[in-house]
Amino acid sequence: QAQLVESGGGLVQAGGSLRLTCAAPPRTFMWYTTGWFRQAPGKEREFVAAISRIGTSKYNEDIVKGRFTISKDNAKNTVTLQMNSLKPEDTAVYFCAAAQPGAPSALATSYDNWGQGTQVTVSS
Questions:
Q1: Following CA atoms 116, 32, 17, 119 in sequence, which dihedral angle do they give, to the nearest 10 degrees?
Q2: Per-residue pLDDT for 1 more than 80?
Q3: How far is Cα 60 from Cα 45, in angstroms, rounded to an integer?
Q4: Which tens digits make up the pLDDT trace of 28-71?
Q5: How far apart are CA 117 and CA 96, in angstroms?
Q6: Strand, coil or helix: 67
Q7: Backbone angle region of 74, left / alpha / beta, with phi > 0 → left and psi within -120 to 50 → alpha
Q8: What pLDDT, on a 0 to 100 scale, did the predictor assign at position 121?
Q9: Are the C-beta atoms of 64 and 49 separated by less than 8 Å?
Q10: What pLDDT is recorded for position 16?
Q11: In degrees to the nearest 10, what's the CA dihedral of 33, 122, 89, 4?
Q12: Percent of the chain beyond pLDDT 70?
């Protein structure tokens, strides 16, 4: 399995922005659907956004509400989650995950390759 490495997390004030990046070996994202999930302390892992190999995206609108954008750059072998207007409730560990080619899925069980996660903390 290709190793997925997340970066870009950190501490930000409410209303601020962060850009999370998921990096993988060359051509990984040309073939796989890629998703972002998050897990806050004491809570279950939840779907945030996903993008297919052809660029079709899917969002958890209950969370995103127009604030986040997922994108991919095949040349750079990255999938990015741009997060704007961050709220304290967005605080969580954010994970990148890859699934077999297909429509973007919100189900964690669809993904069989996970990164280690990156911490996002939003202060009020």
A1: -10
A2: no
A3: 13
A4: 887 889 999 999 999 999 999 999 999 999 999 999 999 999 99
A5: 7
A6: coil
A7: alpha
A8: 98
A9: yes
A10: 98
A11: 20
A12: 100
Contact call for residues 43 and 90 (beta carbons, < 8 A)? no
Residues 6+ apart with CB under 8 A from 66: none
Length of the chain measured in residues = 124
* C-alpha–C-alpha distance, residues 13 and 99, integer Å: 32
Tokens representing residue 69 in the block: 């954008």
For a pLDDT cut of 90, what percent of the chain falls above it? 86
Measured CA to CA, the distance from residue 56 to residue 12 in angstroms comes to 29
Contact call for residues 3 and 22 (beta carbons, < 8 A): no
**Strands 92-99 and 111-114, sheet pairing:** antiparallel
45: Cα within 13 Å, side-chain hemisphere:
16
User: Could you tell me the pLDDT band of residue 15, with boundaries at 50, 70 and 90?
Assistant: very high
